[in-house]
Structure formats: structure tokens, C-alpha cells
Design brief:
The protein is 46% helix and 15% strand. The protein is α/β, with parallel strands linked by helices. The structure holds uracil (URA). Uracil binds next to helix 10.
């Protein structure tokens, strides 16, 4: 037994084992994760293992071992010196999903620290870090000391994985983006939770997307992911809840980089247009839970009202601007939100018939955003801060032929044609309005998540 435990490991054997439907043990997974973090395993081998894992799935034990190994792949942040509870949120990824820019300052303004380690654009979805870096000067790759200093000063800080902080996710995340290995519950669970558990949180709120723009579109797959993440984080000692939320239309009215930051700053300044209402409501629901779990409200509902106050009275905006400044960002750009926006090319897409906007394939809308220049084709490429789409209608709205549906902002004119076709293909204009879909359809906490998982596995 001992000899077997100490036997040398070879990456190719682990790839073959996974390829043939086997399950890796914790030691084998730790070996792969250490090789990813130190960049000593070549990317082609990591890619092959990722694809084998994607095709054959990860067992519960593999998922948990992967999560913990990735969490432990670098330095960890300890929130104990902050003198208050630390709570964060993370979304499984969507289009126009910019709640972090509202939630982090709102929750910090209510007295709960938000140490947030985020990601870049992944597949068809935008990345919090790419959006923040649209603010000139904003630095996402902070040292642990700098991260702590910003948290001390502002109560919230949004940073990236680095060679020191969850380095395994830094490598695997970028690789999954390029190898078509994103949409797998075990890989998503380990990627998200490794970042969150490395941030030394007291509690975590997960926003698990379901619908045509989610990585796991089907409701039962999203429920499984939510239950998997809640039980995995709880087993690692972090109080966690997951909200199952609608991604059947882009959240708010923008999807891109700078334009998403603008939509949030406008909300924090008190400008609440109807088409941003889902963004505002979801951000307040997530913030309400975080404030509750952070001990500053007896119930999530009371947390929601505290969050509403922080958004309305300007305190969230103050925290946001302080955080941007503390991370090197130029806050002067917020003096002229529209003036700073300089896309290389613009096109307004009009409705080709009258009717109701009945359905959207939001994944295709996401690819349209990426191909306008907001995302990258190759790892490490710069993204265009000005690229994106502003939507002039929400699902269920009635449109007349010729009415503007969306304005597209591209890096260059030749990048407009493919996204225009993608949006046309993705949009169903029908005679009748669609049924209303609830923004938050279910909440998982430890007990119902454990029961769900037991049933799902049986
Ligand atoms: N967000 C992450 O951080 N990782 C994923 O795999 C999906 C969403």
C-alpha cells in the first residue's frame, strides 16, 4: 500500500486513466494541480486531461480533491486581520453579468468586507477583470499585502488570480477558455471555489445561472451545479448559499467592457432606467444575502433593504470610487462617462419585423460581444475596452419594424458583420409575448443541497 502511495506519477498515465473512464485519487489530482500551478506540466498535457475530464465527468471525490488542491496551489488570504466578517459572491457566468461592481461596494458600505478574486472573459461570457481594466490605470494583479491594504481602506477589493494567488486556476482557467472545456460542473465548481476558498471568507453567495446564456443551460444541470458547489464549500468550512437565477436574457442593458462599468456607475448615481431593473434587483438580492451572512442583518430581506439604502444614499458609489483609486484607476474618467467611450466602429441594428421579443439565444449574443473585440481569441491578448452591445429592448417588449434593437460597438468596421448575423440568428420576434421568467427561481443552502445531491446521485 505504502509502496503504491509513493509510486512515481506520470502525467501521461493520469491522462490515459481519465480518458478510459477512471477516477483519479487525491494524490494524482494534487500532482496535476501542482504541475499546472508551477507550469511544469506542458499545456498540451493539461489540455488533454481537461478534455478527458470534460468528456467523462469528474466524480464527487475528484471534484472535491480538485477544489482543495487548486485552493492550496498558492498563498492564501486571511481575513482575520480585517476586524469584520468577509463575505463574497461569485457567478457561474453570464452575458451582461456585472453585479460584482454593484454588490461589492454596496456590501462594503454596509460594514461587511468583500475580498473578491475574479476572472477574465471565459467562453461566451465577459470577465469582471477585463471590464474593470477598461478603467485606465486599474490594477487587478495585487500582492496579498496590497489586497489587504485596499480592503482595510475601502472594505472591498476586486483582484485577479496571480502566480502567487490560486496560480492553478490562473493557468487552467485560461486553458479551458481556449480548449472548449468550460461547461463541466466539476471543473466549474473547482475553478470558482478554489478562488473563493483561498480568500479566507466567512461566507459565500453563489449566483448560479440557468437558461440560454448559462454554461449549463438546462435547469436540472444548473441545480446540480448549485448543490455541488454549496456542499463542496460547506465541507471545506465556508457557509454558502446559491441563488438559481435567470440567464435567458442579458442582465441589464449592456454587455461589453467599459459600457458595463458605465451602467453600474449610473445606477450608483441614482439613474435607474427600466431596462437596468433586473440588474439592480439581482444585485440587491445577492447583496442582501451577503449582508445577512456577514452578520449585519437578521434576515436576507433586511439585508436587501440595507443594500437598497447604500445604493440610494451614495455610500456605495463612494466605496466604488475609493476602491478604483486605491487600485490605481483614474476616477476622472467617471466625470464624462460618454466622452470616454471611443469605439472604432458603431452600428445600430433595427428590428426586421414587428412583434414581441420572445426569445434570445444568449450564448450567441455573448459570442457576438466577444467577436466585436470585447473578448480574446488567444490567451494573454488585450481586449478592446470600448467594444460591446447596448440593448434597446428587453425580453417581452413589443417592437415595430425598423425600431432599434441594439447598438454594436466594435474595434474596427470589419468586425461588425459576424456579430450582426449572430444577433439576428439569436433573436426570435414573435406574434405573442413570452411567459414571464422569475429572476431568482430557487435558493440552495446546506440542507437542501445535500438532499438534492443524494437524490441526484442515487
Ligand atoms: N467562473 C469561474 O471562475 N470559473 C468557471 O469555470 C466559470 C465561471
Amino acid at each position: 500500500m505504502l509502496a503504491k502511495d509513493n509510486a512515481p506519477l506520470h502525467t501521461v498515465d493520469l491522462i490515459r486513466k481519465k480518458r478510459d473512464g477512471g477516477a483519479l485519487n487525491a494524490r494524482e489530482i494534487e500532482f496535476l494541480v501542482a504541475g499546472a500551478a508551477s507550469e511544469s506540466i506542458p499545456l498540451e498535457q493539461l489540455s488533454a486531461w481537461l478534455m478527458a475530464a470534460w468528456l467523462n465527468g469528474l466524480t464527487l471525490d475528484e471534484t472535491r480533491a480538485l477544489t482543495l488542491a487548486m485552493r492550496d496551489s498558492g498563498e492564501k488570504f486571511s481575513s482575520s486581520g480585517l476586524g469584520k466578517k468577509a463575505v463574497d459572491k461569485h457567478s457561474t457566468g453570464g452575458v451582461g453579468d456585472k453585479t460584482s461592481f454593484l454588490v461589492a461596494p454596496v456590501v462594503a458600505a454596509c460594514g461587511v468586507a468583500v475580498p473578491m478574486i475574479s476572472g477574465r472573459a471565459l467562453g461566451h461570457t465577459g470577465g469582471t477583470l477585463d471590464k474593470l481594466e477598461a478603467i485606465p490605470g486599474y490594477r487587478t494583479a495585487l500582492t496579498l499585502k496590497e489586497f489587504e491594504a485596499v480592503l482595510d481602506l475601502c472594505g472591498a477589493s476586486i483582484v485577479s488570480q496571480t502566480p502567487a494567488l490560486v496560480p492553478a486556476d490562473r493557468v487552467l482557467y485560461a486553458l479551458r477558455d481556449r480548449t472548449g472545456t468550460v461547461e463541466n460542473p466539476g471543473l466549474i465548481c473547482a475553478s470558482i471555489l478554489s478562488k473563493k476558498l483561498a480568500a479566507g471568507l466567512d461566507a459565500l453567495v453563489l449566483d448560479v445561472k440557468t437558461g440560454s446564456g448559462a454554461f449549463l443551460r438546462k435547469r436540472e444541470d444548473a441545480e446540480y451545479l448549485a448543490a455541488l458547489m454549496v456542499t463542496t464549500a460547506e465541507a471545506a468550512g465556508t457557509r454558502t448559499v446559491a441563488l438559481l437565477t435567470d440567464m435567458g436574457q442579458p442582465l441589464g442593458r449592456t454587455a461589453g467592457n467599459w459600457i458595463e462599468v458605465v451602467e453600474c456607475v449610473e445606477l450608483m448615481r441614482g439613474d435607474w432606467p427600466e431596462r437596468s431593473e433586473d440588474l439592480r434587483e439581482l444585485s440587491l438580492r445577492l447583496a442582501g444575502w451577503m449582508i445577512h451572512l456577514g452578520g449585519k442583518a437578521d434576515t436576507p430581506e433586511k439585508g436587501y433593504w440595507a443594500a437598497t439604502g447604500a445604493l440610494a444614499d451614495g455610500s456605495a458609489l463612494r466605496v466604488f470610487l475609493e476602491m478604483v483609486k486605491a487600485q490605481g484607476g483614474e476616477v476622472a474618467v467617471f466625470d464624462d462617462l460618454k466622452g470616454f467611450h471611443k469605439p472604432g466602429a458603431t452600428r445600430v441594428l433595427e428590428a426586421w419585423q414587428k412583434g414581441f421579443v420572445a426569445e434570445w439565444d444568449v450564448t450567441d449574443l455573448g459570442w457576438a460581444v466577444q467577436r466585436l473585440g470585447a473578448g480574446r481569441e488567444k490567451a494573454g491578448e488585450p481586449v478592446d475596452p470600448h467594444a460591446g452591445i447596448e440593448f434597446h429592448v428587453k425580453r417581452g417588449e413589443r417592437v415595430e419594424k425598423g425600431q432599434p434593437l441594439a447598438t454594436l460597438y466594435a474595434t474596427a468596421p470589419d468586425l461588425l458583420a459576424e456579430p450582426v448575423e449572430l444577433i439576428k440568428k439569436a433573436t426570435v420576434i414573435a406574434e405573442y409575448p413570452p411567459e414571464a421568467v422569475p429572476l431568482v427561481s430557487h435558493i440552495f443552502a446546506r440542507e437542501n443541497a445535500e438532499a438534492y445531491l443524494r437524490d441526484a446521485i442515487r
